[in-house]
Amino acid sequence: MEKIVILTGAGISAESGLGTFRDEGGLWAQHAIEDVATPEGFARDPGLVHRFYNARRAQSAQATPNPAHEALARLQTGFGDELWIVTQNVDDLHEKAGSSNVLHMHGSLDGALCGACDHRWPAPLEMAPGDQCPDCGAPAARPDIVWFGEMPYHMERIWELIETADLFAAIGTSGQVYPAAAFAQHAGRAGAHCVELNLADSVNARDFAETRRGPASTLVPEWVDELLSH
Ligand code: OAD
Q: Which of 84, 102, 80 is nearest to 1 (CA)?
């Protein structure tokens, strides 16, 4: 059976009401990356950073999966463990839709991380400066989100999956953030067929042998139906 790796980005959750980063009016037009998505920003003003992620956590908790997330969950029922979703998203819409093979390379809003001892635990809906680690007691709780300048999660496993994939798809990502932006090129060189499903041209569109343009909620179910009917 074909091995499939699917990279998802903010565009797949846009139609569930969660904002993307770089589209007009996106999160990075409203907030400075260096203030809310770097370790230095957190050290400078932890209150601001917690408020930013508390708001995103609350929004994500209210959000429901759209037909694109649901179609990928359906694809997993056909391909089982031969299908992996690597997501840059910190929401849990893939899991809410029923997908289980999901690697959150940029962390998750549902997680808290101790900046002192690296202990992880489920994040409360609201976090605040000085929240204590339940393991070591340090007042160093932070969202378990990978910030700029930090190492994305699960990279060894992800490169392994990419190198052995027969099919690689990127959905709803602008291709501006590495290492995710390099996956298509690597997958293609290792022999995978690379497909991009996105509303607009991504920066690395030329790394894909096949391109489909449109909203994820219609493109993804169509593509999944094709794969399941082969
Ligand atoms: P971006 O905001 O950079 O890109 C979103 C992409 O989704 C764009 O290419 C849009 O054209 C596309 N898009 C928007 N609406 C869509 C829809 N309804 N259907 C299909 N495509 C749509 O988001 P990402 O590429 O996910 O990292 O951003 C990557 C990383 O940058 C994020 O994980 C985050 C951010 O900084 C961290 O915070 C570490």
A: 80
Give distance in angstroms: CA of 45 to centre of ligand 1: 26
Supply the angle between the helices 67-79 and 216-229 in degrees, to the nearest 10.
20
Query: How many other C-beta atoms can be found within 10 angstroms of the C-beta atom of residue 22?
Result: 16
Q: How many CB atoms lie within 10 A of CB 17?
A: 12
Low-confidence ranges of the chain (pLDDT < 50): none
What class has domain 1-17+65-106+152-230? alpha beta
Which residues face 112 on adjacent strands? 121, 143
pLDDT score for 210: 97
Residue identified by tokens 């429901």 is: 64
Please state the CATH superfamily assignment of the domain spanning residues 19-62+110-145 in this structure: SIR2/SIRT2 'Small Domain' (3.30.1600.10)
- Distance in angstroms (rounded) separating the CA atoms of residues 159 and 155: 6
The answer to whether the CB of 107 falls within 8 A of the CB of 146 is yes
Ligand 1 pocket, 39 CB below 6 A?
no
Give the pair of three-digit tokens for residue 27: 């999160």
Measured distance CA(57)–CA(11) in Å, rounded: 17
